[in-house]
Design goal:
The chain has one helix and nine strands. By secondary structure, the protein is mainly beta.
Length: about 110
Amino acid sequence: LDIRLLSFLLLCANYVQLTFLNVFTGVKAQTLTESEAVVKRPGESHRLTCSASGFTFSSYEMSWVRQAAGKGLEWIAYISNGGGSNDSRQQLYLQMNSLQTEDTAVYYCAREPQ
């Protein structure tokens, strides 16, 4: 509750709140780990990172989805097998530039079904 309140207060002060979570269903041995939540000023850039274990990104299609407060899910990026990722580090990235307050949302990394 405190974190959400803090995020609200920062947003009112013209900050951009980027929260990253992950969506994953499947075998327990396969996991996705999220980045930390961050607060950015409008115009700044940020790179979200999704880390995997138990599978390689190059074997699957991935998506980035976001959800702003009180709104539905918005699909923002589709990554074909291996694109936008680093298999040696087991990480997938979403580079966001010129952030605006409209980018305030919870961001999800999602793996397509096999």
